[in-house]
Structure formats: structure tokens, C-alpha cells
Prior knowledge:
Layout: H1 2-9, H2 19-28, H3 39-47, H4 70-77, H5 93-99, H6 128-135, H7 151-155, H8 184-190, E1 210-213, E2 220-223, E3 237-243, E4 252-253, E5 264-267, E6 271-281, E7 293-300, E8 302-307, E9 316-322, E10 331-335, E11 338-346, E12 349-353, E13 362-367, E14 370-371, E15 375-376, E16 386-388, E17 399-407, E18 416-422, E19 445-449, E20 455-457, E21 480-486, E22 495-500, E23 503-507, E24 515-519, E25 524-528, E26 534-536, H9 538-541, E27 549-555, E28 564-569, E29 571-575, E30 581-582, E31 597-599, H10 603-606, E32 607-608, E33 611-612, H11 613-617, H12 628-631, H13 639-645, E34 648-650, E35 655-657, E36 669-670, E37 673-677, E38 681-685, E39 691-693, H14 695-698, E40 713-719, E41 728-733, E42 740-747, E43 750-753, E44 759-760, E45 768-770, E46 781-784, E47 792-797, E48 800-803, H15 816-821, E49 830-836, E50 845-850, E51 857-861, E52 869-871, E53 883-889, E54 898-905, E55 908-912, H16 932-940, H17 947-953
Parallel strand pairs: 1-7
Antiparallel strand pairs: 2-5, 3-6, 4-5, 6-7, 8-9, 9-12, 10-11, 10-13, 11-12, 13-14, 13-15, 16-55, 17-18, 17-54, 18-19, 19-20, 21-22, 22-25, 23-24, 25-26, 27-28, 28-38, 29-37, 30-36, 31-34, 32-33, 34-35, 38-39, 40-41, 41-42, 42-43, 42-44, 45-46, 46-47, 47-48, 49-50, 50-51, 51-52, 53-54, 54-55
Helix pairs in contact: 2-3
Amino acid sequence: DARITAYYYVEQLALDRPAGEALFYAKQSKNPSAFSCVNNFTQNIYGDPSVKILPPGFTTIDTDGDGLSDDEERYIYQSNPALKDTDGDGFDDGEELVYLEGRWTDDPDGDGLNIFHDDDSDADGLTDYLEVMTLRTDPMKTDTDQDGLTDYYEVSRDGSPGDYTAGTDYDPLDPDTDDDGVSDGDEVSAGDDPLDPWDNKPVAGVGPEQWVDATAGGETLVQLDGSQSTHPKGETLFYSWSVGSISEYSPVDPNNSTEAVQPVLHARVGGDFLVTLKVRKDAVEGWVWSDPATVTVHVQHRITGVSPQGAGWGDTLTINGMGFDKDPAQNTVTIGGMSAEVTAAAYDQLEVTVPEGCPNGDVIVTVNEKDSDPYPSGISMPPGSFSMAPDGSFPQGEYCSMAAAMGDVDGDGDVDIVVANMGGLSEEETEYDNPSCHTMDPQNRLYLNDGTGRFTDMTFGEDQTAGTDDDRLPEDSDQSVDVELVDVDNDGDLDIVFANHGGFKKWWPSGGNEQCVFSGGTNRLYINDGTGKFTDETASRLPELDDQSVQVAVADIDGDGDPDLVFANGEECRPYEGEPYPINENDCCMECEGCQWVDCSWYNTCCSGEQSICEELQIDCEANPNHVCCTGVCDEVDCWQCHICSTYYCTSCNTCCYDCGECPQNPGCQPYSIPRPGKDRFYANDGTGHFADVTDTSVSNDQYGRTQNGGRTRAMALGDMDGDGDPDLVRCGYSSDYMRTWLYENTGGFFDLVEEYLSTEWDATDMLLANLDMDQGDTLDLFVPQVYDYPIYLVQEDGAFVNHSHSSGNDDWLPQNLLWTYTRKDYRYWTCAVTGDVDLDGDPDIVIGRKEESRNFLLINDDDSPGHLNYTAGMLPESAESTYGLALGDVDADGAPDLFYANVGANTLLINNTEVVFPCEGDFEPDGDVDGADLAAWISDDHGLSLEDLAWSFGRADCP
């Protein structure tokens, strides 16, 4: 019964399939638990006359082992039950059903044979086995990919239809082998090569790069050009343009059409637009695209103006222009190199907040990683702030500069600059604070001003060649650390005094005293001929002593009206007067003939601690005559001395030694030098620029001839501390007992030490005396930057010095934001300081120099609380310096002091931003201007003003 058979073998998989296939799937089911049967299936079976119904008891014998029972082969498939592969096509009969998906009744070539009897079912010249197992083509279709070419034709291009060879055969599974948008069959019909993509592939052309300036109107229109695009057969092209990712979408119009040959890019923001074009044959989908062609369109956004002029820190600055991004976050604005927050944005306008500390520099707007041209900001800088000097103002060069002095050396009425340099010595000769100085030129330099604040290096004249007649400074290799400009010979021009440090290095050898080497510390005096040309007259005018000078100060110390000199000196390198130093570790270097040496070789045997063990042992020497305590060996061992020296000991010289075998004439001995505190020098001027050493009669000395409580001077300053009209001396040293700030009162040219020191300091780096607190007392206060700690700040109040430093416990007059922002460790970078009224408010301010590429500081004296120093970021330009010297002077003749950094590396010139308003001498009213009423007043009354001076002020309306 067919129904029973169906119930037993058929599962859901067989539903609604043709009768032949349904029976095949029924045969494959081995799981009778998933039965499902419908009448439709049985009807299909009975309705197909080619299907024979198996009797209920058909056998499962498979004689040929092909996976099909003999009864199935006889009654269903009509295959040979005795042959495993009935048609000899390489497939077993059972495999035919598996690989051909049960389509055993199909006869695609119409030859009346099913798959079991036909080895090439589709009659395309390729066996079923080859198509399924090798080519993966469909054995029931002559043209598997339906490209109009038979499978056999496509794989036989190389003469071997047995496999597919890429690059030679056409792909029987891909209707368009070369992906050019045209099927393989159409290409063969047209005489093209299905393996050549270029015979139907167009080429996109976009022309050269374009540079355009942004225009007004909310967008910039840029015409694109795709007319260079071509098709190999001259077909009409379809154009598709795209714009690379940019912060604001900018369309191309028209686009994606055959009309978009020369469309317009609507650039709604500035930037570099990467525009891509692809073309294909007309607008029909499926035609091959060209490779993309790209062109960069550079749309330069522009600044046309900024307002208001004179905007200050915290104000809103409006930037007008074209090509800005409408998203504020996509615009980056800098003013003088400092970032400014963008608060509002449109295509033609930006609003930014001027940041605190912002310099009066150029505005630059960056959009899409593209910078605008710089535009002057017109920022109003606070009084006392500085900006970098314009490019080209100061010569470039890399020097190890330690100090600078400003003054008019050539008599032309403007401020010139002299710089003191070190450098050039080896690591064996000296130890520089900055190692890069070893390779730098130590020549001191002279820079002349052209009157506008632009300088030329005139050290060796116009030809810049040393040793010629136009040299302005002598050639030198001195290690100069300080410089002063002063008219020493009273001839009306400025001469130069250099404090020279020389080469100095000290170290601790193993097992010996501290040693040092020193060379060339002679200070220099250069005399000006009145034109800025200097001659070295040190030998005839200045005592030539090899001191290690660290600073020079100028003042009339003896009250005779002439400038005298005081040199602060650090250390000396003196020959040691004790034992020489051994060249080799085991040398004995004693100059003590007749010394008795103690042999310590028996120390461990004879000694216990520092006592002889013989006393403790009480050996019976008669019974043990050879014991060391009985032979006298231990009697020669001084246990205490050997315990200390561990080797040998010279009793008469009271000195340890390594080996006494060659003493006292040991050839390995050599003398050596040790560092000792130096001696400050006081030089008195005779009025003609000739100086005498009056050190011993000018200052309280100690037993070594040094300044009392002096030696190893680190910083020094001269000033009238007690208000008696003559300069007093303040100095401080470094190391051990010298770390004190001492005051020496001038009494008739003699500096007498005030017994109580002013403060304890930790390696001061400079010293400033100025009336910082403006207490109407006309007394000088003291500011000392130092290493490893906060600055010392001593203010005279009611005749006594009051400490107003960070760590004083008193009212702190130093900047609180520095106290909390910078730790004590940060202050180790402080190297120097200079004081001057940089904001022109009548009180002195302080500039601090710092090394190791740290920012320098400007401390402004508070008008409301005189003596309180304030720090505001941005008063000095943001720059990383290694500054060792500072100088103030009006280089551009605008009435405000400008600033010079003496750096290791390139020196730096800064211009003061303070606006100077000169008084109007002719404003007699006074009403703020000089006009006809003032002229009438001048005519009617004697005001003591010349007509020339009145004419100079006449017409001014900005009188303070």
C-alpha cells in the first residue's frame, strides 16, 4: 500500500515537492519519529506514471555497494544493481542522488536518459563529475552563470577544458569576468575581451588642484571640471562626485547625472577639500564604474578684521572674515600663540574670549587643519607686560651667556647690549651648570642698536672677522659670568668691566681629600674710545689676580666721586701644604724622612678590638718561646693605630699610608690643590680709571684675610641700606657656615660687619636692593632668589628688617599663586633677578630668570599694597628658556624699559607693552590739551618754558 509506505518513510522535508524528488527525500529519511504525511504527497506519487510503487516488503540488499538497494535500482531508478557507477561518469549511483540533489528524473539535453545513464547530463562537453567536483558548475545547465557562453567554452580558452585557469579562461561562475559591467557573452559578441576590464571601463578626469580664497555670502563657489573623463567607446558618461569628510557638509551641484560634467562645489567652510569623481556609461545600473579620480580644492579662509581694537584680557574679540566653520568647536583660534576659546561661530564671523596672559600677537584661525594668514589682534596689554621683539630684531646665535649690560656705548643716543659668555672648556677643565656650554664659543659679544631696537653683532666689526682693525671687542676665551658698563675714567663714555670665573672643577677622590683644578680667572677692564671701540687695558689699570669671580658691583665706596669696583669671589684652588696625593692607589706619599712605621700585617693575630691580646692571654713564654706574644711581634703592633688605618701608620707624621716600602722617596708622589673659600676684592678708583686693591683696608677680615664671615660668596649687592648717603654691602655665601645673609655698613669707606646676620639662605643665586615697599622712608629692601627654597624677602620697617617671605610666619608679601603652584623644589631653577619699574607706576618690579627651559617670572609691585608682589601669567611671553642673566633698558626709545634674557642657547629680546604718555609742558590751564589759550598764557606770563619746548607740545590733546 503506497499510503503505508509514505507513512513509514516520509517526513516534513518532502512536502510539496515533485513526485520524483519527494520519493528520493523519503528514501533518505532514517528517523521515523518525525513522521508527517499529507494526501498531496500520495497524490503526487500516484499521478506520476514514471514512479513505481514499491511493495511493502522490498529488500535492502545492495549488491554493488553504491548506497542504493537492488530493488531501488530496478524498480525506481532503472540503474544497474550490479554496477556501482552505471553511466561511468565517476559518481557512484548513490552519489549521483547526493551531488545532483535528487534531480534523477531531469533530462536537460533531452536524450531520454536520466542521470544514472548519462555521464554528461547537460551535454555541454563536460562530465557531471568534472562539473561538480572540479569546476563547481551546474551539470544540469550548459551555461551556469547565464552569460551566453557555455561552461565548456569558458573553461577551454587555454586548450584544456578539464580545469579553470584564471587569467586565461573565462570564469564559468561569473557572468562578467573582468568586472567591466559588460557580460562575457556580450563582450565576445562585440569582439571585446572578457578578460580586459579597460575595453569597457571609463576613465575619470578631474583636472589640476585649485587654490581659491573664501568669498562672502555664506559659501564659496568653486567650479569643478570632469570634462577630461573618457569612455573607450565614446559612450555618454554618468558623473558621480563626492566630497571627503570635512567639518561642515559642502555639496556638489548638479551631481549623479549625465549633466554633472562641470558642477559647482558649494564650500561652506574653509579647508582642503578632497573631491572624488567616478564615471560610468550612462545612468543604467550595472555598467562598470571608473577608478576614482581625486582633486584637492584649497579654500583659504580669511580674516578681514578684528574688533574692538584694544580689547583686554577677558574681553570678547570679534573676528570678521570668510570661510569659518559654523560649529564653534571646529575652529581653533590663537592670539599671539595662546589658545582662545571660541564662543560663537558663523561662516563670516567668530567670537572669542581673550585669555588671561594673552600677548598682543597675531590672530590665527585654524579650520580643518588649515591656518589662516596671521592678522594683528590689537590686544591691549597690561602695563608692564612684554612681547617678543619682532623677527630680526636681535642676531641669532647659540652662546653660553651668563649676564648682560645695557647702555649707550657708541654715543649715538640709543641703548646697546654687551653680553658675558662662558664656554669651550673640556669636562676635565671645568664643570658648567649647563653641559651644553662645553661646545659653545666663550667670546663676549657687543650688539649695537640702530635706534629702533634692531641690533647688529659688532663684536668684530662689519666684517665679523676677529683680529682686524674694525674689531670693537678684544678677542677672548675668558669664562665671563658678569658684566657692568661704567665710565671708570670719567671721559664721558661707558667702559666695560667683566667678572671672570675661569675654569674650575673640584671632586672627591676615593680615600683622599677634596681636590680641584683652576685656570684663567683674571677679570677684565676694557676702555672705550668714545665710539664703542674697546681696548683691553686690564694690565695697566686693574690688579691681575686669578680669582674665581662670580659677580661685580659698582659704587663709590670711598666717597671721592669716582666709581669703585667690588668683585664677589667664590672659591680658590690652593696647593695643599700637607702630604702629597698618590698617583696610584697603593703609593705612599710622605715627605717625612726618619718616620717610624708600624707594621699592621699582624693586626688580626695580635689585636682584639683595639687592645693587644697578649695582655689577656698571659702566655708562658718559657714554655712557648715561639708564640707571637713572646717573639716581640705583637709589641711592634700599635693596635689602635692599625685599627684606624687598617694598613700602615707613620707614628711621627700621625698619618695613615698604604705601603711604606718606598718611603720616604716614593716616586709616585705628586702635589695637589684643594678648594678653599675665596677672598672678595675691593678696588678703589683713582679718578682716571686706574684701580688699587684696598681689600685689606676696606672690610672686616677674618684670620685668613677673607671678608669676615665671607668666603665662597654667591651673591652681593651695594646700596645705601642705612640712609646715610654711602653704599653699604650685603652679601651671602654658600656651603657650611657661609650660608647667611650679612650686612656690612660703610663707615667712611670701611665696611664693618653687623654682628647679627639678616637671614639664613640656601645657595643664593642673585641679590636685589630696591625700595620695594615704598614706605616713604627711602630705605632699601632686600630680595634674594635662592636654590632649594623660596626667595628671601626682607623689608625695612621702622629701622629693622622684617622677613616677608613665604616661610617667615609673617604677612606673606610674595605671590600666593606661586606659593601654591610651585613647590620649593621648583625654585631650584631660579638663577638671577633684575629690578626696575616696568609698568611705569613709580615703584620697582622684579623679573626672575630661571634655567633648564623653565618660564621666567615677572612680579609686579602692588599699587594698593606697596611691597606686595603679584604674579600674573602672560605678563612675559610663553617660552622655555635657560636664563642666567637679565638686563632692563629702553631699546626702542619709547620711554618704557625693555627686557633682555642672557640664555644658554639663543638670547632673547622682549619689548615692553606699556604705553608711555609724556607730560605736556605747555598745558598751563591745565585742561588736558595745549592750545591757543595756553599760548596766550605763555605770552602774558613768564612760565619758564622756552618757545621751542612750547612748540613741541602745542596741539597735543592727551596730556595726563
